[in-house]
Amino acid sequence: MLYSLRMRAELEGRHVSGAERIIKANEVEKTIKEFLRRPKLYDRMVITIEDVKEIEYIPKALPIYSYDFKSVEEAHRFAINMLMKEGVKEEVALKGLELLKKGPNPKGGNMRGAVLMDMESGERLEPDQERGVRTVRFDWKDRRFIKRLLKERGIKRFYLERLLDALALATKNIHCGVAAELCWSDDPDYTTGYVAGKTVGYVRIKPMKEEGVPIGGRVYFVKREDFENLVECLEKRVVLIEEL
Which of 15-19, 119-123, 173-177 is predicted least confidently? Predict the structure, then answer.
């Protein structure tokens, strides 16, 4: 029996941390303890455990590439070019970028889920613009093995768990039909972001924001006609990724 284990933590009503695992029954207690240590500060945490009945397998994760730039402006120009390679119009890519810079929540600041943006018009499609759309129920088939492979590639410990989670999430997004994703963290101390897509792969980009900035999020660029099936896949289907 496998279980979907998810954590979401908040501080003063603001999302501060989240995590996701698909695990065996004997790993539940250990993983919950790991989740409890994950947020630095929080005043509310929700942990959800569900049994898994059907699983889809993705044979291979998106390939990883990394680029460092001297300034946020250079990094942003590069990110826009990567999004355009996936068919996102330049003006729409810029709109998504500006949305993350100011905070995607219409009331200001961050939001729990991702923005769904029509890749042709730039219109926001998510039904609840304060909540967004969440990608959940995903993990690696053998997380320890993938972690070891990333270590062997020289990924530093500080980035390892973040990369494991973000790469799995981005891989599920593209599997479900997201054309391209733009993301950077709302963690003030973490400035690396990424663009993901079927053509460009998983492209780590640094710095996508200045240090100390607590604003971030995700924008999924999608085709309007795929909207309903895509949301169902992102939020309902259980996915395990087999290999790097």
Answer: 15-19
The predicted structure's pLDDT at residue 106: 66
DSSP helix/strand/coil, 171: helix
Above pLDDT 70, what percent of the chain? 98
| 164 and 136 Cβ atoms separated by less than 8 Å | no
Which residues have a Cβ under 8 Å from the Cβ of 174 and sit 6 or more positions away?
62, 181, 196, 197, 198
- Three-state SS for 139? strand
Name the average pLDDT for the chain.
Answer: 91
The beta strand positions in 151-208, using DSSP E, are: 180-184, 193-197, 201-206
Pairing of strands 239-243, 56-60: parallel
Round to whole Å and give the CA distance between 139 and 225: 27
For 117, 122, 148, 155, the CA distances from 37, given in Å and listed in that order, are: 34, 38, 22, 22
Contact present, 215 and 102 (Cβ < 8 Å): yes
Determine if residue 132 is left, alpha or beta; phi over 0 gives left, psi from -120 to 50 gives alpha, anything else beta.
left
Q: What pLDDT score does 135 carry?
A: 94
CA dihedral 103, 106, 111, 112 (to 10 degrees): -160
pLDDT at residue 39 is higher than 90: no
> Where are the extended beta strands (E) located within the chain?
2-11, 14-24, 44-51, 56-60, 64-68, 115-118, 138-140, 180-184, 193-197, 201-206, 217-222, 239-243
Whole-angstrom distance, CA of residue 216 vs CA of residue 110: 6
